[in-house]
Design brief:
Length: 246
């Protein structure tokens, strides 16, 4: 029994010898459209192109904090001005001050504090939560969060966009992940101070605390009442507690 095999006209491996690489990939895509090649050829072409481009990338891009942050991160500091200190952050060693309204403190190691993470897709923070303390409902629009409990007991959870609730109690050594953009919280569920470290898959994951967004600014009380279904007395009380106006 004979089987006819359609010839595979693929020039993917020629990319190692032909420049510019981008032009060759476009040619492969054209051949695919004409039926003269296969998706596998294009995949191999793109794989080789990405490998070549990756080899041309610089080793790092320490953020130049003298400029403004952008969606693409900070501009790179001149390599001649980069020192070992740019890749070291000691701020997470010190406990945060929990003598405040929420009895908790967040010490960030985001790109604004730790310029060495610029462009690397990572950052970290320290959470100190006193007994009775809470990290209120908040979101990180720009990144996922991974929490590891170092000391104490923490009740943690998040609410999905479908309004499903995922809550658990975490003890020393336990880890929990919070998907990007989801409302989440952490509460000290024990009688002793709790300590956790968190990491993010972004150098600047962002932070918006729901209560502060509603009651710690100048959003007029009538609007807050409309969107929260709270009465005027409750809204004004919360604004007073959190320093809002209007």
């Amino acid at each position: 029994m004979s089987m006819h095999v359609k010839p595979l006209h693929c020039t993917a491996f020629h990319l190692l010898y032909i420049t510019p690489l981008q032009a060759e990939v476009r040619e492969e895509q054209s051949r695919m459209a004409d039926g003269r090649t296969t998706p596998l050829c294009v995949f191999l072409s793109l794989l080789l192109l990405l490998s070549a481009v990756n080899g041309l990338m610089q080793d790092f891009c320490v953020g130049d904090l003298s400029f403004s942050d952008t969606p693409a991160g900070y501009p790179c500091k001149e390599v001649s001005q980069v020192t070992c200190d740019d890749f070291v952050f000691t701020g997470l060693a010190m406990p945060g001050d929990t003598s405040n309204l929420i009895k908790a403190a967040v010490t960030p190691a985001f790109v604004s504090q730790f310029p060495g993470v610029n462009g690397l897709g990572i950052s970290a923070a320290r959470l100190d939560i006193a007994p009775g303390g809470v990290i209120p409902l908040h979101t990180h629009p720009g990144g996922s969060e991974l929490l590891v409990v170092i000391e104490g007991t923490i009740c943690a959870g998040f609410i999905s966009s479908a309004n499903n609730v995922y809550v658990t109690t975490l003890n020393k050594g336990d880890t929990m992940v919070f998907p990007p953009g989801q409302l989440h919280f952490q509460i000290n569920a024990g009688d002793f101070p709790a300590l956790a470290f968190v990491s993010f898959n972004s150098p600047n994951p962002g932070l918006q605390i729901t209560a502060y967004a509603l009651f710690a600014n100048s959003l007029p009380s009538p609007l807050v009442e409309k969107v929260t279904f709270l009465d005027d007395e409750q809204v004004k009380k919360l604004k007073k507690v959190l320093g809002g106006s209007g």
